[in-house]
Here is the input.
Amino acid sequence: MGDLAIDFCGEWYEPNDEDIFSIGREGDLEVDDNPYLHRRFLQIARYDGIWWLSNVGSRLSATVADGSGGMQAWLSPGARLPLVFSHTSVIFTAGPTTYEFAVHVKTPSFRQETSSHTSGGDTTIGPVVFTDSQKALIVALAEPMLRREGTGFSAIPSSAEAARTLGWALTRFNRKLDNVCDKLDRAGVAGLRGGGGKLATNRRARLVEHAVTSHLVTAGDLHLLEKMRGEVEA
Here is the structure.
């Protein structure tokens, strides 16, 4: 194995130091024959001893996170990021489909040290505090990934399926989804709004991308699903 390797659905790619590795509908890694996906969307190349991930598309963005969820970035068209961690997840949505691949660097230039300290209390992202019902909504959408490690983001349930999981009417689910996306958008989480201040059409996928990669929700939160169903029955 070289210094960098890419894992996409169990297939491994190992670019050489002098390569410019292209990812998209066409290229070195042909993701999918999806008309919503750019022919050339992302590129990985090594410059001055550092591997870089570049967004060479014109419309789509990608979520980039380290393996621990401690770092998350939104890679917009024209932007690039250094791949400094030993494990980096890259997630993006094109039309109705969400894709993910992992980048492994054998000699990372940055090593993280995790802290065993955890604090109790409400879940907070900046100024955002979520109620149990709002957090349960996020858990319902992320449930496939939380229950089975390695499950792809294409398994995200529809709004109707997630509403049934919680025992809610679809109208209640959509209202709370609006509230959650509004809160995160005001906190600076990109990709939850489309043009003109309207909510993005693929906001469920973007919400789950953010929640899972940042560890906003974990498998330890799955109990909220039973709690919500119990409250409805009561």
Notes: The mean pLDDT is 85. The chain is about 25% helix and 25% strand. The two ends are 57 Å apart (CA to CA).
